[in-house]
Amino acid sequence: MKRLWHLLGLGTLLAAMLLTLSACGQSVAKQDVLARDEQSKQITWGGKSDTRLFGLENIRTGKLEGFEIDLAKAMTKKILGPNGKCVFVPVTSGTRVPLLKNGNIDAIMATMTITPEREKQVDFTHSYFDAGQSLLVKKGSPIKNIHDLNRPGKVVLGVSGSNSVKNVAKHAPKARVLQLSDYAQAMTALKSKQGDALTTDNGILYGMAAENPGYEVVGGNFTKEPYGIAVNKNQERFRNKLNWALREVERDGTYNRLLLKWFGNVKGFNYQEMKR
Amino acid sequence: MAHLIATQWQPLLMGLWNTILCSIIALIGSMIIGTLFALLEISQTRILRVIGKVYVEVFRNIPLLVITMAFFLIIPMYIAKINGFTAGTIGLTLYTSAFIAETVRAGINSVEGGQLEGALSNGMTYHQAMRYIILPQAFRVVIPPLGNQFINLVKNSSVLAFVAGFDLMYQGNLIANDTLQTIPTYFIVGIMYLIITLPLSYYMRHLEKKLA
């Protein structure tokens, strides 16, 4: 009998924890993010901190730097005026949606591909960057494209929570996929030969190839990955405002300037094609 | 949550199995290695004592994640190709063995000195005295702290998630990322860890009562 009471108590405690947690999520979702941000003159963005060219933490200054970071800053100025402040919270592919859902961040701009599954959970703006998935291998590797990986025994490295690992299952179903927690770790795993190739979006891969001269991007793009800014469900006003701000930075040339700044010198990356 | 279990039971079960497998291997391995190094630590030869001490201090004072990462990344570069599961299990075994060595050593020290003297004066060799007189008494004393180590070991096996070891935590991460149902997923994963640790904890209590 005593044991039964113990178990019951444990069960109630767990259930209470779960309820509290889910209740937190709901109260945040009901707030009007745009109204709150306009009042506080501040937008909190979820950005990458481990991805060269898009969002990378500068170890000396501690600040995030990259195309997405600059774009977010430009869009914040459009929405909140010249005094608008921009706060960045570093996210990974795995943490970004939970952080958005529980209200720690207002919007995600973190190399996030617009997919139908994700659209069930969050709302996306128009695409702000059209990437495509590709492969990074050691120079001289026998792997030349995604089809070379479609064999038993081949191991592909990716980052958990990213869309690219799911695409491997579609394009090379026979390969084994190892999912690591971030790009730095995946790159180290590639170097220590834990996998035959590293896969993610081309822009990110070019950034890694620039940092690691012994490695190259091969095989071209085998998917289309349009990146969108994600906001919580029921934040139509905020999303429309972001779409408007995106069009504005494209119209006044800021977008192309940032594209040139970050991708102008990247070998193998045709930034002219990406101009808007 | 029922829907989550209905659609994801396969990876979850696979994760549970890998976690159990890793825990069993690491438990047996760390018991053997830990006891061995405990004996080295109390050895009468100075050099053996130093070896034991260095081993324990190295593996006890480096974070488990660092040890595991080293096996996952450095060993394949220079020595042999090992996968995440192997790297994680080796790391977990060595890390836990350092704690078990300290626990067992404390147990041996708690056995009165007269016991060893008595055994020796009855004509037993040092090894016989250890094997038949000291260790059986020491293990009885250390069952409660050993139980703690075993439970920690099961939970620490979640380090496999960081080296793609396909354990319960790894599968949980993938499912959470896939379905974006983060809280329910980790809730289920937590319950599944309890499925392993609660019986273990009850068994250790039982053992404690039986031998006390």
Structure description:
The complex is a heterodimer of chains A (276) and B (212). Helices cover 43% and strands 24% of the residues of chain A. Chain A has 276 residues and is an alpha/beta fold. Chain A has 2 domains: 32-131 and 226-270, Periplasmic binding protein-like II (D-Maltodextrin-Binding Protein, domain 2), CATH 3.40.190.10; 133-218, D-Maltodextrin-Binding Protein, domain 2, CATH 3.40.190. In chain A, the strands form 3 sheets. Chain A has a 5-stranded mixed β-sheet. In chain A, strand 9, helix 6 and strand 10 (176-180) form a beta-alpha-beta unit. The longest helix of chain A is centred in the first third of the chain and has 29 residues, at 2-30. The radius of gyration of chain A is 21 Å and the shape is globular. Chain A starts with a helix and ends with a helix. The mean pLDDT of chain A is 88. Chain B has 212 residues and is mostly helical. Chain B has one domain (2-211): Orthogonal Bundle (MetI-like fold), CATH 1.10.3720. Chain B has 8 helices and no strands. Chain B has helices at residues 2-41, 46-61, 64-78, 84-110, 113-121, 126-156, 168-179, 182-211. Chain B is flat. The A-B interface holds A 14, 18, 21-22, 25, 93-94, 97-98, 101, 117-118, 120-121, 160-161, 166, 178-181, 185, 188-189, 191-194 and B 72-74, 76-77, 81, 83-84, 162-164, 170, 173-174, 176-178, 180, 182-184, 187, 191. Chain A: Belongs to the bacterial solute-binding protein 3 family. Chain A: This is Extracellular solute-binding protein. Chain A: Residues 42-265 form the Ionotropic glutamate receptor C-terminal domain.
